[in-house]
Amino acid sequence: MNRRTSAKWGELPSLVLGQIYEYLEPHDRLNASRSCKHWRSVIFQKRFFVNFKLKLNIDNDRQCKFFRHTLYNLTKELIIIFDFINVFHIEKIRRILYRIARCDNLQGLRFQTNNVGLMPPGDISEEGLVDIEQLFVEPLKVFLNRKKTSCIILDLGAIEALTYYGLDFLKSLSRPQDLKQLTLASIKYDPSHYPMFPMENSLLQKCSSLQVLSLDYDTLNEELLHVLKFLPLKKFLICVHGLDRHHAGISERAWAEFSANFTNLELIVTLVYAFEAVEVLQLRILRQNMPITHLRVLFCDYMNVEALDWISLNNSATLKSIQWIDSAYKHSDNNTMDLFLRTGQDPLVMMSWRCKNLEEIVIHGYVLDPHNIVGISRLRGRTLKRLEVSMIDSTPNEASMDSFIEEINTLLGQKWEPFNLNNMHPALGYMPVADDVRDEYVFDLIRRDISN
Known about the structure:
With 452 residues, this protein is an alpha/beta fold. Helices cover 38% and strands 13% of the residues. Pfam families: F-box-like.
């Protein structure tokens, strides 16, 4: 193509070029827009960005500028990735939130940060709270209060400091009846001591289209559970941290009334650094009428064998997935840290037998007997979509282990082998890790449970 012909193509009227773009698939349209500056400018129209989702990294100044000037009114769902303790990041977010408060396309907003537990609540000075309110909370309330466009997704990113303003955010929603996903559960800075997050039941009652909800267990009570049973929930995630002695718990009757209203609800119970709650899990939290489908026990430094047996007996009709995860390096002196069960009933084997819908077993930080892993594979077979373990009793010789792995491969109908801890996330390994590394792992897992 000579220069004169190229110039003519570059001079096509925007209206004509836009009509040509309509005939192209999204991938081809994007490639065509790279031809020249003029062709690129034409692509930035709402009709070409239907359901467009964007991950905005606040560290990337060029991306932030491009978003504020070009993409802010085209994005349907925005994920903001930032550092909560970086004042420059918060200032950028303040400008972005005020910017998107004037757009009529954005319906979903998610936050993502490594610093989910900002600081101990008692250490937040009055001045610090004012800064958070002025730089973050106030512009977010302006965004939620838009009159033309409803907010359908609000994900506070498990950030403890933001969940304290959960009531303010709910009150700011201009059209709460359009909200479909709300995540208010948090990761605590200190899982044993933290303020309680209050909830006005009437506010959630107004969210008549709510399908996905996450809450801290402390927020939940029987009155709130009664309100939730009238919502079209498809996924309900409950995060357990500490156990307040004044929390009355949820009765069998309340859970029975709740579960009677749902047939395909995913109820995900997640314990996060719940060092006390994990020991009384089957006594204080689990209930026979609780339609629990997924259990996550994350870095609680204790394997509660009785709880495993209890849930496989009482929730066998609903349980689909269990993940019990600790690091190989542990901070506890508890003698029950290693799960060696060569005799008697292995709770995971019994769970595999009793729970007919069980599809996923993930165990890290505990040593398992290879005979029992074979037993699990025989009972679940190809219905077990995921079997993930990293620590296996090495007592059998290498030839025996190869035989075990070969049999498990055949039973599961897929290639299987134990995970090598050296190749896994550092939060699971043999070396001590910083809290933010572990928080990142927990946050990623919770986010997957919410979004999947």
